[in-house]
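TA notes, week 10

Several of you asked for a full example with nothing omitted. So below is the full record: structure tokens for the whole chain, then the designed sequence directly under it. When grading your own attempts, check the secondary structure regions first.
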């Protein structure tokens, strides 16, 4: 169960994900807002100055988006948020292109209000200053807590368990709003999506049904075979149903493209995709993915349902496979 402080930070991030950066009801009137590093390093005092700082910051981005990765509760009423940022950078009228960063925000909370917010562009600096274990230490730390088997093939943790929990809950809220009063059918893609689908269903507040398909596209190697076969089809027709395909990961998109064409031919009322992970760098076909948990780099990942040669599905986080 998340603490009140972590729950508060999650609600702030959910507003940011909706683009509601001007929402400040969570802030103490005398809040200190600090950008600790980078070219925009500065500090502001009070809600009005903080709002101005936000406006200046957002003015240097186009399509700015935050992607929460982990929430770490520290002592003294502090919560450290590890997050990714994406968008197109702009400065002095110049388009700097697509920018992806991994940053950290430190929230200091008293009596249910944020009294100090420190934004770090350099995540490693934040971790060092706060004495918090870095991402490369996460797998070994998890192993020492007994949450994962010790295995040399388990590499860097990309998405921690608490970030998965938070993001799945957010996706559940979004899908619940979108499908209120509709005939929702979730189609889970075996085997990788089982963990994600189970947690997602529990996060929904609207009625739904579930069915499964199994497709052959990955074998024991780390690359897609490029061959798509239906090993298990749906148990019931989907004509007239509002269908959401639940995938663990979208890589090249070839398998999902085939699946979309197959299911569209069965005349559902609507057909959308919810993917826990996507790899934009690997995409070979453009696909309409309405709900995305996390965008990740082009690395082979395991855990939370994802496997390598049928192993590692039970890991509570998403980690990189060490192929050495």
């Amino acid at each position: 169960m998340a603490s009140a402080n972590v729950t508060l930070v999650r609600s702030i991030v959910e507003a940011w994900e909706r683009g509601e950066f001007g929402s400040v009801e969570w802030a103490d009137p005398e809040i200190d807002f600090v950008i600790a590093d980078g070219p925009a390093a500065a500090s502001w005092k009070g809600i009005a100055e903080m709002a101005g700082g936000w406006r200046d910051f957002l003015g240097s981005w186009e399509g700015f988006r935050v992607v929460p990765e982990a929430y770490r509760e520290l002592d003294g009423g502090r919560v450290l948020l590890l997050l990714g940022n994406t968008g197109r950078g702009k400065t002095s009228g110049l388009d700097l292109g697509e920018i992806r960063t991994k940053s950290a925000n430190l929230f200091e909370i008293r009596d249910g209000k944020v009294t100090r917010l420190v934004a770090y562009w350099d995540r490693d600096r934040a971790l060092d200053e706060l004495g918090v274990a870095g991402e490369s230490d996460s797998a070994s730390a998890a192993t020492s807590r007994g949450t994962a088997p010790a295995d040399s093939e388990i590499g860097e943790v990309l998405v921690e368990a608490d970030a998965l929990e938070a993001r799945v809950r957010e996706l559940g809220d979004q899908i619940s709003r979108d499908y209120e009063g509709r005939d929702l059918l979730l189609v889970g893609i075996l085997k990788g999506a089982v963990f994600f689908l189970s947690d997602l269903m529990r996060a929904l507040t609207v009625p739904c049904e579930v069915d499964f398909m199994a497709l052959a596209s990955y074998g024991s190697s780390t690359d897609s075979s490029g061959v798509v076969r239906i090993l298990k089809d749906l148990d019931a027709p989907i004509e007239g149903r509002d269908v959401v395909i639940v995938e663990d990961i979208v890589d090249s998109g070839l398998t999902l493209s085939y699946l979309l064409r197959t299911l569209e031919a069965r005349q559902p009322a609507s057909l959308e995709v919810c993917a826990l992970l996507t790899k934009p760098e690997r995409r070979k076909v453009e696909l309409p993915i309405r709900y995305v948990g996390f965008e990740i780099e082009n690395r082979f990942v395991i855990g939370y349902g994802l496997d390598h040669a049928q192993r590692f599905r039970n890991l509570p986080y998403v980690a990189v496979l060490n192929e050495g």
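The chain has a mean pLDDT of 82. Use that as a sanity check on your answer.
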